[in-house]
Every structure is written in structure tokens, then in C-alpha cells.
Design brief:
Radius of gyration: 22 Å
Number of helices: 6
Helix content: 25-40%
Number of strands: 5
Strand order of the largest sheet: 1-2-5
Shape: elongated
Strand content: 5-15%
Structural class: alpha/beta
Amino acid sequence: MEFGESEQPVDYEIEEFLGSGYWVIAPERRATRSACANVLRRLPEAIADQVINLQRVILLAPSRGEWGRALPFSWPEINQPEPLPSIRVKDGTSERVEAPQATVVTVRFSLVYLSPDLEAESPEVIVAVTAHEIAHGITGQIIGEESELLADQTIREWGFGYELDLLREKNRNHRY
């Protein structure tokens, strides 16, 4: 039995999400898929909602031989009203009319890449790496030592402290 595989009953919402196209996990990446399901089950509800329902994190876990991949994504169109003339003439007089402003929609998401090399690691390390990268996506902080410390602090708060300790023990040369 792999770590986290039979600890909880199958969550069909998570299984459906893992097959939705927003998280692309190669079929042979069984340990990574199991770790991703484990992380999704354990995330705080508000964070899981951002990941699953709002698609704030897009995950790619390719096979070792996959050299590239393009993923199509779509969002609703930006609401851009028809421009109005800047001058309106009424009864021989003119008045200035402000054109309506376009509604700007910012779509914010993070792309998480999980290396095929993770398959050789323990399930706990894969869980920690997955949770850590999701934390970067949720916090929006991805550059520098402070972002790494924030991601670690965040996953500790989410309940992944044990796995994080194992990851830091295994990977002492982390980039911060």
C-alpha cells in the first residue's frame, strides 16, 4: 500500500478533478498521482476550493520521455462595451460624454511542474513537494528566499509539517 492511498475512502470529486485536464499527470506517475490526491484531500477547505473549483493551480507531471506539451485553457471573454462617441449633439448644443470603461478581468493561476525524478522519492517527499508548490501558487510568491520560507510556513499551517521535515532532511541543498 502506498502512502495515503487507502488511508481515506476514494473522493470522487478529487478523482474527477485529477482527470479534468487542469492537472495533467502521466499514467505511469502513480506515486505522484497518489500524492496529489493525498494533498488535495488534506488541504484546508478554502484552499482546496481555490485549487479544484477556481483552477488557481494548474499542474503538469509528465512522463520521463515527454519533451514538451501544449495545454489549451479558456476563460470567459472580457466584457468590453461598445465605445460611445465622445461628443453628443442635442438641440444644436454639444456636450462631452465619457465613454464607458472596459471591465478588465485578471485571470491569475500558477503552473506547477513536478519532475519525473520525484517517482523515485518516498511518498512523503512527493506530498511535501506537491503541497509546497501549490503553496507558491496560492500565495503568489515564487521568487527568492522569503517566498520559499512562506511556502514552507504555509504547508506547515495546512498540516504537512511531517512531510516537509522529511523533504528538508532529504534535500538539504534547497535553493534558499
